[in-house]
Fold:
Amino acid sequence: MPTTAPSGRTRGANRRLAWRPLQRSTRVAILGALLATIFYQVFLLNPAYRGPLWL
Structure:
């Protein structure tokens, strides 16, 4: 069983690769939430979908 530690170069590369999917999925989640918010704001501002004013 080898007892040598992996070199710093491969260890750092593996660490960077491990974080990439999390960052990408976070970006996708934030973008989706932003698009949903924009769509909902446009929906709320559209007079055709407004209810009675007393509500």
Summary: The first helix runs from residue 8 to 45.
